[in-house]
Every structure is written in structure tokens, then in C-alpha cells.
Write a structure and sequence with these properties.
Helices cover 7% and strands 30% of the residues. The chain has 782 residues and is mostly beta strands. It folds into two domains: 22-250, Class I glutamine amidotransferase (GATase) domain (Rossmann fold, 3-Layer(aba) Sandwich); 256-764, TolB, C-terminal domain (Neuraminidase), CATH 2.120.10.30. A nine-stranded mixed beta sheet has the order 2-1-3-4-11-10-9-6-7, sandwiched between helices. Helix 1 (34-49) crosses helix 5 (225-238).
């Protein structure tokens, strides 16, 4: 067992307290706080007597307890309603020496008001109150840390009554927040902190351990089993009977490093127009460029020119051993027409990369792209394909002659946009392929892309019922196939269609998910759950005539199904139908449970699978907008009646980029891996870096696959730094085998690479959990 057996002087390297833990509770009885204080003392004594780890409790309201000799007896000191400015200079200095020697501190509720003139005590607590919610109110506490001894036994969403404190300065990022109170579940008052409202946190402070909870403002609360569990875990850590990582979400413990240099003039030697990454088991990072060149490079937009739209689909590799970039190869793609009008620009090109699961042995790489050779300039059509190539492991060069076309299908390229592109593997060797709806929403005023009239050569380019909403079209989907060694593929069981539906030629068996608009990013977690994000249309506000505003969307997908586009968005919020002869006239609202595709451009089934709710959606007005619904389930779409169910995010300019689900590897000896705190958290982000999401969220596994909302979210803006000097335009992000996060910054322009286009790595540099094993006492030291 560690720690002194007898009380002694306070000195660094010899943590105060005993092998049989002891706690000092400092309090002051003031009027209406009398009952709260007594309830707190009673609760702490009961917790201390509760096995298997125990501690004795001494309660005092005497400031004379704050001497070196006396404090050295205690493993932890609790401030419980101690009053305001009570310690004199010598007493505070003794307390400072106690903390620096390795002592523990637990502050409860009004402890944050103690010693208001002391900057040191402000640092110990982490923040100061700016006010409260008034009297006790019931609210929901989001428990974000599922490992800390103070929170690991608590429910994900913890409903309880308390007096909720607001903070002068939000401590998130400077402390490790373990729980937040959800402000939209109570009335927080005029000093409200907003969606990020920490209520319990911890950190290692000047050699000691500090835990604070803003809860504990009522006598009744101390009798609650969950609150006692919360206090018990905090006391086990502060008394050195349990370890906890209280550094994991402190932003200063992360470092973002740019790995690639700007390209040389008029070259793409470091990076192409950033579009996606994949990471090999040995840590090599392969990243692709869609098809644009450098800023100011000429583009050919003349349909009569054989070179029209030709661009370089680039593959580069960053090697962690040499920290150098290798240009692996280039494909001639259709994807370089610059910006401008939707009838000029294009988002086709090299869209996705997936290294084979046996890449180290066979060098296979799957590329999702639009070959320039497949463009029909007369029909304004192109070929999209997924092909297998080989990369020579010695030279790190792409063998273009090794191409085996696995899957191909037609796409219209008369009008931009929405190519999608990402690819991911599951544990069974199935390849998931995200495809966009290749459709313009401009001709439906930014609402449902369901205008059947505009066409070129008889092919609609403004009716997503031809693509995403069509069971017989591979665009606007997430496909799932099983590539075989000979370059063919088979269909896994459990896809959305067998191919035998209707007349036998009205549904494609490759479809796993339909009804997605522009899924640039998908991810598969270690349990084969699919995570997808897609970009919504362009309407800046909801319409009582046509339906919801632009919703960018994220979804957890655990089975084949229909996510809704272009019929419904968000949580089954329908659009209005339109059709010939006059598409400007609204028809009936879509029934999300009974969708019928009556478009003249539909060559698939008429009756579609019911639409499923999505987990996260956001608009320029806010996150998770919802509205009162009439008897038919149709929302009012009146902005003044909106409820924003996800207050932690907001759109504007927006382009959803789903990220990984972190899986902590305890066996890895990497010194840069992110800590276990992030395990199973889902990273969701946006191309833009204002109010748009860049968060880690916690999902409830019991309802995540059924459209359940996140139960907790925290910002990553200061860990994955935003702004011009940071990673401003997030294009793709993945964790490597070293546990570090690799991020592509698109750059500051569009349809080209510029000086800000780069590959970054975000590493963790915080220390281990505390206390260190040698400082543990009791059962924790065994």
C-alpha cells in the first residue's frame, strides 16, 4: 500500500492521508442551508461506510483545521456549503501546500462561491457562479464520461431536481467535463450558459486532484441513490482509491500538426483537390484528389472539346516513418470544370478510396471514380465505376493497367451536383459505396428535388425520384456488395432488394440504403454499424407550401432501409409532391410511411419502403428543427412554432461530413493515441467551421438505429482547431492505427487545391490517469 501510515508534514512526493482513507468535510451552517448541509454530511458519512472501499469522515466548520499538520491526516478535503471568504492567508497557503503535495479536493454546489478573492481557489474549482436557475427545478443531466468512477454507473440521461448554477466562464476545455445539464429541459435564467453547460468536472491541479459538482443544492438530492453514486466515485478518486482520466477533454492536451506542405507552383506534388483518405495497417495514409488542379489553372468547359472536363484524380501517400509524401498515381477523370452555374460546374471525379482488407499482402485498392474516357459529350452522360487497382508496395506506384472494373453505372453530367463517393468495409468483407443523387435542386427552389420537367436528351436532371427515390437506380444510395478475388462481386444477404421485385427488373440488389442525397462520407464501426452523413438542398427557410428547409443529415444505420430523400427529411418531415403537366403547382404532402414514386422518370417500383427517422438534422435556423403536426402528421413548417431539439448545432452554409467512431486500443503502445474517454463516441462534422457541427456525440445503443437523438454532445472546435490558421474546411477524418486522428482540410477555394489544402494529424499529449499506480491505496493498489 502507498501513502504515509501516519500524519506528517506536507511535501511533494508524499501524498497526504493514510492507507485507511480519511476525509475532512468543511462546512458552515447558514440559515436556509442548514438542512442541505446536514443532509450532505450524512450522505458523505454513509458513502464512506459503504464497501468495499471505505473512508472515515471528520466534519468541521472550524477554519483552524487548515494547518499543514492537520491537513496531512486527510486523503481528501470536501467543501460543503463552507461560506464565502473564510480562510486567512496562512490557512489558504496550507491548503495550497496540501493540494501540491498530492491531496484531493471535492467541491459541492456552493463550494464554487468559497474564497471569492482567491485566484488560486478559482483555479482549483474551475469557474465561478454567475447566478442560478432560482429554486430547484427538474432537468436532464447528460453523462458524457462513461468511464470516470463518478459517472460510470449513472444513466446516459439522468433526470433529477436541483438548483442549477450558471457560470461566469464556461470551464469546458480547461477542465475535464464529465456531465452537462441540458438547458432546454428547465428554465436556466438570464445568465444561462447555452447548450454546453458543464455541471460536474475534474482535473489534476498543481499536483493534486480536484473534482467539482454543481449539484447538491437541495437536501433531498443527497438521499438519491444516483447522486450518492456520483459523490462516491468522486471521493474514491480524490482519496486515491480509484484512478480516473481527468485530462482527456482538456484542449491543451491535443496538438494539431500539418503533415503536408503547400504544392510547388503549378504542381500537385503534395496533394490534389482533397476528397478522401484511407489508412493502411502500417500507418501509411493514402489520400485522393477529386479532379481539380491548382488555383488559377485553366479549365475546359466546351462540350465540343475532347478535353472538356478532364482533370487529374490524384493519389498521394504520407509515410509516418519518413514523414514524406509520395505521389502514388493519377487517373484521367471527368471532374475539372471549375465553379459557376450548376449547368457548368461538376462534382464528378475521383470520389472514393478503400484499401483492400489484405492490402499489405495484395496491394489492392478500390477507387470510385468517373473516367474521362466514359463521357458521352453528345448525350451529356458519363460512366461511374468502382474499380480494383494494384499499388506496388515497393515503389508505392499505382499500376493503372491492373484495373478490374467491379461495378459501373450511368450518371447524368449535364447538370451538377451530388456525386457522393466514400467507400468503407465491414468485418465480413462487404464493401459499402456511397453515391449521390446526381441531381439539381435549383429547379424546385431548394426544396425537394422532385421537378420532373427539366431534362437533356430525355434524361431528367432535376428529379431525384429518378435517382435517390428510385429502386432501380444506383444513384442517391449506399450500395453494399462483396467483391470477389476474380474482380466480380456477389450480393450479401440483407440488402434492401433481391432484384426479383416487381417485374424482376425494377429494383437493384446492390442497394443497401436508398433516399440519401449527397453522402460524401460514410463510416463503419467495429460492430459493423453504418454511419452516414449527407448534404441537403438549398432552401434557407422552411415553407408552409413546400416543406422543410435544407437539412443536412447524419444517421446510424443498422439495417437496410429508406432514409427519405427526396420525399421526407429529418424525423419524417414530408415535402410536397409535384408533377406534370405543371410542376410549379403543389400537390399532396408525401406520406412518409407509405411513399409512392409517381414520377414519369421512375423506372423502378411505385411503392417504396417506409421512410426511417434520422438521428441528426440541422438547418440555418438550428439543430433538429421540429414543428407541431396536424392530424395527418404534417408539420406546420412555421418558423415561429419551431422547436430545436439539438441546440448544440446550427447550419447556414453547411455540408455534413460524418466522421469515425473511435475505438480505443488498450494494447497499443502509441504515445499519441487519443484516450479511452473517446471510445465509442461518434464524430460528426461539417465542411464549414462556424456554428456548424464539429462534435463528438454519445448515442444510446438501444435506439440509435431507430432514429434516436444523441444523448450527449461536446465541441471539438479547440481540439480540431477551426479558423484560417487551423483546419477550417473539413473534408475527411479518420483515426489511424496509432490512435491519432488524420484530417483533410479542403482549402479555401473550390474545385481546386490551394495553399491551405493539407493533410493534418491531431495527437494526444496528456498524461496517464491519476493517481499513478504507486500512489493508490486500499483495494485500488492491489
Amino acid at each position: 500500500m502507498a501513502g504515509p501510515s501516519d500524519a506528517g508534514p506536507l511535501a511533494a512526493g508524499s501524498p497526504p492521508g493514510k492507507a485507511n482513507a480519511s476525509v475532512l468535510v468543511f462546512y458552515r451552517v447558514d440559515g436556509d442551508q442548514h438542512a442541505v448541509t446536514r443532509a450532505g454530511i450524512e450522505a458523505i458519512k454513509a458513502i464512506g461506510a459503504q464497501g468495499p472501499e471505505t473512508f472515515t469522515v471528520t466534519a468541521t466548520d472550524e477554519v483552524t483545521a487548515f494547518t499543514d499538520k492537520n491537513l496531512a491526516k486527510y486523503n481528501a478535503v470536501v467543501f460543503l456549503s463552507p461560506g464565502s471568504d473564510r480562510l486567512n492567508t496562512m490557512q489558504e497557503q496550507s491548503f495550497q501546500r496540501y493540494i501540491k503535495a498530492g491531496g484531493g479536493f471535492l467541491g459541492i454546489h456552493d463550494a464554487a462561491r468559497s474564497e471569492p478573492e482567491s485566484d488560486w481557489f478559482t483555479g482549483l474549482i474551475g469557474s465561478r457562479p454567475a447566478g442560478t436557475s432560482g429554486g430547484a427545478q427538474e432537468a436532464v443531466v447528460e453523462v458524457g464520461d462513461r468511464l470516470n468512477p463518478a459517472t460510470k454507473e449513472l444513466p446516459l440521461e439522468w433526470k433529477r431536481s436541483d438548483v442549477w448554477t450558471n457560470w461566469e466562464k464556461n470551464p469546458s476545455g480547461s477542465v475535464h467535463t464529465v456531465a452537462r445539464v441540458r438547458e432546454n429541459t428547465y428554465q436556466p435564467g438570464s445568465t444561462a450558459n447555452g447548450w454546453d453547460h458543464p455541471i460536474s468536472w475534474c482535473r489534476d491541479y498543481e499536483g493534486g486532484r480536484s473534482f467539482y459538482t454543481g449539484m447538491g443544492g437541495t437536501a433531498a438530492g443527497f438521499a438519491e441513490e444516483n447522486f450518492r453514486s456520483h459523490l462516491r466515485g468522486a471521493l474514491l478518486w480524490t482519496t486515491r482509491q480509484a484512478r480516473a482520466d481527468c485530462q482527456a477533454s482538456i484542449t491543451a492536451n491535443y496538438e494539431a500538426t500539418r503533415l503536408t506542405q503547400p504544392n510547388q507552383a503549378n504542381q500537385l506534388d503534395q496533394i490534389g483537390e482533397p476528397h478522401g483518405i484511407d489508412i493502411a495497417d502500417d500507418g501509411k495514409v493514402y489520400y485522393i484528389g477529386r479532379g481539380g488542379r491548382w488555383s488559377g489553372a485553366p479549365v475546359d468547359v466546351d462540350w465540343n472539346s475532347p478535353e472538356m472536363g478532364k482533370g487529374p484524380g490524384t493519389i498521394h501517400m504520407w509515410d509516418p516513418e519518413t514523414e514524406k509524401v509520395t505521389a502514388v498515381g493519377t487517373l484521367d477523370v471527368f471532374g475539372n470544370k471549375g465553379g459557376g452555374d450548376e449547368l457548368v460546374k461538376v462534382e464528378e471525379g475521383l470520389l472514393g478510396i478503400a484499401l483492400d482488407q489484405d492490402f499489405a499482402d495484395n496491394g489492392y485498392v478500390y477507387l470510385h471514380y468517373t473516367p474521362h474516357s466514359g463521357v458521352d459529350r453528345a448525350a451529356h452522360m458519363a460512366e461511374r465505376r468502382v474499380s480494383r487497382f494494384t499499388i506496388d508496395q515497393e515503389t508505392q506506384k499505382l499500376d493503372t493497367a491492373s484495373e478490374k472494373v467491379v461495378l459501373s453505372w450511368p450518371v447524368q453530367v449535364h447538370s451538377c451536383c451530388h456525386a457522393g463517393g466514400d467507400m468503407e468495409w465491414d468485418s465480413k468483407g462487404n464493401l459499402y459505396i456511397a453515391t449521390g443523387d446526381t441531381n439539381s435542386s435549383r429547379f424546385s427552389d431548394g426544396y425537394s428535388g422532385n421537378n420532373p420537367e427539366p431534362n437533356f436528351g430525355g434524361v431528367s436532371f432535376a428529379d431525384a425520384r429518378r435517382t435517390a427515390g428510385n429502386t432501380n437506380n444506383l444513384n442517391g444510395k449506399i450500395l453494399r456488395i462483396h467483391p470477389e478475388d476474380d474482380g466480380t462481386y456477389t450480393i450479401p444477404e440483407g440488402n434492401l432488394f433481391t432484384g426479383d421485385e416487381g417485374d424482376g427488373d425494377q429494383a437493384r440488389p446492390e442497394i443497401y440504403v436508398m433516399g440519401v442525397r449527397n453522402p460524401s462520407r460514410i463510416e463503419i464501426d467495429a460492430d459493423d454499424r453504418l454511419y452516414a452523413g449527407w448534404v441537403g438542398p438549398d432552401a434557407g427557410a422552411p415553407s408552409t407550401t413546400w416543406g422543410p428547409a435544407k437539412y443536412d443529415t447524419f444517421a446510424v444505420i443498422t439495417s437496410a432501409g429508406n432514409q427519405g430523400w427526396p420525399y421526407c427529411m429529418g424525423n419524417s418531415q414530408p415535402y410536397r409532391d409535384r408533377n406534370l403537366p405543371d410542376p410549379s403547382q403543389p400537390l399532396g404532402w408525401y406520406d412518409c410511411d407509405n411513399i409512392k414514386n409517381t414520377s414519369p422518370n421512375n423506372d423502378g417500383l411505385t411503392d417504396l419502403p417506409p421512410v426511417r427517422d434520422n438521428n441528426i438534422w440541422y438547418s440555418p435556423q438550428g439543430g433538429g428543427p421540429d414543428y407541431p403536426r396536424n392530424a395527418d402528421g404534417v408539420p406546420s413548417y412555421n418558423v415561429d412554432e419551431a422547436q430545436y431539439r439539438l441546440p448544440w448545432l446550427k447550419g447556414g452554409g453547411q455540408a455534413a461530413m460524418t466522421g469515425p467512431v473511435y475505438r480505443y486500443d488498450a494494447s497499443s503502445d502509441s504515445d499519441v493515441k487519443w484516450p479511452e474517454y473517446w471510445n465509442d463516441k461518434w464524430f460528426v462534422g461539417d465542411f464549414y467551421d462556424g456554428d456548424q457541427p464539429r462534435h463528438a456525440v454519445v448515442m444510446d445503443p438501444d435506439n440509435a438505429g431507430d432514429g434516436g437523438l444523441p444523448v450527449h454532445a461536446e465541441s471539438l472546435d479547440k481540439i480540431i482547431p477551426v479558423g484560417n490558421g487551423g483546419i477550417r474546411n473539413l473534408m475527411d477524418w479518420k483515426f489511424g492505427p496509432d490512435g491519432a486522428l488524420y484530417v483533410l482540410d479542403y482549402g479555401r477555394g473550390f474545385f481546386n487545391a490551394d495553399s491551405a489544402s493539407a493533410l493534418w494529424r491531431v495527437t494526444y499529449k496528456g498524461g496517464p490517469a491519476t493517481p499513478l499506480p504507486g500512489d493508490l491505496i486500499g483495494k485500488g493498489s492491489q
